[in-house]
Design a protein that fits this description.
With 219 residues, the chain is an alpha+beta fold. It folds into 2 domains: 124 residues, Aldolase class I (TIM Barrel); 88 residues, Golgi alpha-mannosidase II (Immunoglobulin-like, Sandwich), CATH 2.60.40. Helices cover 23% and strands 31% of the residues. The strands form 4 sheets. The chain has a 6-stranded antiparallel β-sheet with strand order 6-7-8-13-10-11. A 3-stranded parallel β-sheet has the order 1-2-3, with no helix packed on it. It has a two-stranded antiparallel sheet with strand order 4-5. The longest helix is centred in the first third of the chain and has 14 residues. The model has no long low-confidence stretch (mean pLDDT 95).
Length: 219
């Protein structure tokens, strides 16, 4: 049994009380399938990431994916209004932030893409067992998060382009920024494939409102 609170949005001034008396608590107002809501979550998650610990999980709210609104308080029966890139951003941020993952859609109506978001074991492992998750930098609309793997020296790296310009953007992260020297092996968690080795830095092209998610293994 666990206690989930919905103060929404919670204040960090209450963090000690919330950690003592509940297992999860809402850090934002009600979250729905609107880009402006998703973009705001970057501010909330940045603020609350240091308060995640064993048995204490700041909650970024439901996963507004798949078919939603069947009997919703907001909007008609619909498929999520998030684009596929925005859905990847949602799942990537929730996973590396280690928010509780509570699906807000109708499971029997899921399509293959929605199921792929909810059942990617490598992504779910980040949510369930990573450590020390935090925002690495926010350079305008280009954001990077990192987290440590539960075992060994591997690290996770999430890259986001939250800008509204139609063009994809290049994001570069030096290995020094995440605590690596030399070179490392890169694996794309969403594509479930290895991308080979990088030396000194990793550069990725991220689409508008999109995300990339990697596991880095130092060599």
């Amino acid at each position: 049994m666990l206690l989930s609170l919905s103060p929404g949005p919670a204040s960090t001034e209450q963090a000690e009380f919330l950690q003592k008396h509940a297992q999860l608590w809402r850090i934002s107002d009600d979250f729905w399938d609107r880009w402006q809501d998703l973009k705001k979550q970057f501010d909330f998650t940045r603020t609350w990431s240091r308060y995640t610990s064993a048995n204490s999980y700041p909650d970024a709210d439901m996963l507004a994916l798949g078919r939603i609104g069947i009997r919703a308080e907001r909007g008609d029966d619909r498929h999520t209004r998030f684009t596929k890139d925005e859905q990847l951003t949602l799942m990537t941020l929730w996973s590396i932030f280690r928010s509780p993952l509570m699906f807000g859609g109708d499971l029997p109506s899921n399509d293959d893409f929605t199921l792929s978001l909810l059942t990617n074991k490598e992504v779910l492992a980040v949510n369930q067992s990573s450590k020390n998750s935090r925002e690495l930098f926010a350079r305008g609309n280009l954001i990077a998060w990192t987290a440590d793997a539960s075992r060994g020296q591997d690290k996770y790296l999430a890259l986001f382009n939250v800008g509204d310009e139609p063009e994809s953007k290049s994001i570069t992260v030096s290995l020094d920024e995440i605590g690596f020297k030399g070179k490392c092996r890169v694996r794309d968690l969403w594509k479930k494939e290895g991308l080979g080795l990088v030396r000194s830095k990793l550069t990725s092209t991220v689409p508008r409102h999109g995300a990339k998610f990697y596991r880095l293994t130092p060599l």
